[in-house]
Design a protein that fits this description.
This protein is of the alpha+beta class and 356 residues long. Helix content is 48%, strand content 19%. The chain contains 14 helices and ten strands.
């Protein structure tokens, strides 16, 4: 979103000084502080007049007449779009991020928790990893693992690398070898089927079996179909949302007030709403910043979010990002999030090439 606000060069300089100081301190900013700490070379009176003009324009606000000013969502948005969305990382920071990723990473297809942890560690905010983020998943493989007492763990892997685990209860105990045969059959028959169409596909296979047109070489096919119907009738499963570093925020002064802390916790626990807001934001591009009242999630705790997509073989695989106070240091965090998202894309492409 590009904002068109006509400001003079002086007003822009003062606004930039106020936003920068507020991001660093978290406190309302006075004209005297801007004069003393921003390096603008302007008097406190001149800055005070410019701040009053910015307040009239809806770019600054204050709780009462004698208080300092804080940036509004609009001015933070201007700051992000002018400073943060194209800022490159230094070579030193890139090396440090690569080192942390290499030291922390685990098998990508199985677990994204480490990604959320890396994001939390390097940004000092709450790190998030979400998968899948695409509108539709396509099935790649199914594994069946016996748990005892007639229960089986079904591991459903989609083409974007997402993994869903569902426990189903069968009518009898199955040996490992039998379950492997069933899983091989289902993986072959359902490969490249959209998740939303799996049940229809199973129905079509079953009808063909009844007509003797398919499955004659697979004695386990009927049992496999029955088990698959149990797996996929249990629902589509939830999108995987992994959060790390909540303590980074709980201990921060920004959330010392009970209402703000409550809003933060509610926002981080509402995974469905986070996914919904991210999907809506990604319509506009690969990397998105959401500030304050721009979404229900961030408004509830006066928060900010930075998120970027990662891909597998050119298709959306998921998203990573951070949640923090509305005043978080976007100029530092946006390029970090983008670097980690790009690294994940590279890893997934390498995994895909290895299995091609």
């Amino acid at each position: 979103m590009t904002l068109v606000v006509e400001l003079s060069k002086r007003q822009l300089s003062v606004l930039d000084g106020v936003v920068g100081l507020h991001i660093r301190t978290g406190e309302p900013v006075s004209s005297r502080e801007v004069a003393g700490r921003s390096g603008l070379g302007l008097s406190a009176a001149t800055i005070r007049n410019a701040m009053a003009e910015l307040e009239e324009s809806g770019l600054l606000s204050r709780s009462h007449a004698s208080a300092g000013c804080v940036p509004t969502d609009t001015s933070l948005r201007m700051y992000v779009e002018s400073r943060c969305l194209s800022r490159p990382l230094s070579a030193t920071v890139r090396r440090e991020l690569s080192r942390r990723i290499e030291a922390t990473r685990r098998e990508l297809v199985e677990d994204l928790e480490w990604v959320a942890k890396v994001l939390a560690d390097v940004t000092s905010e709450a790190g998030l990893a979400v998968r899948p983020i695409a509108d539709e998943q396509v099935l790649e493989a199914i594994s069946l693992i016996p748990l005892g007492n007639c229960r089986v763990l079904a591991v459903v892997v989609s083409e974007d690398g997402a993994v869903e685990k569902r426990v189903v209860t069968l009518d009898r105990e199955w040996r490992i070898e039998e379950l492997q045969e069933l899983a091989n059959y289902l993986s072959a028959e359902l490969f490249a089927t959209p998740m939303s169409g799996v049940l229809d596909r199973l129905d079509a296979i079953g009808r063909s079996e009844d007509e003797g047109a398919m499955g004659s070489g697979s004695p386990c096919s009927r049992e496999a179909i029955k088990i698959a119907e149990s797996i996929f009738s249990s629902g589509e499963g939830e999108v995987q949302v992994l959060v790390a570093g909540t303590d980074n925020l709980v201990k921060a002064a920004d959330f010392a007030e009970a209402d703000r802390l409550r809003g933060l916790i509610n926002a981080l626990q509402d995974h469905a709403r986070i996914v919904r807001e991210w999907r809506r934001a990604f319509i506009k591009g690969t990397t998105q910043v959401i500030i304050g009242r721009e979404s229900e999630v961030t408004a509830s705790g006066s928060l900010g979010m930075v998120a970027t997509l990662f891909f597998r073989q050119g298709r959306r695989a998921g998203a990573v990002g951070v949640v923090g106070p509305r005043r978080m240091d976007y100029s530092r965090i946006v390029p970090m999030v983008e670097f980690i998202g790009g690294t994940l894309t590279q890893m997934l492409d390498e995994v895909g090439a290895d299995h091609a």
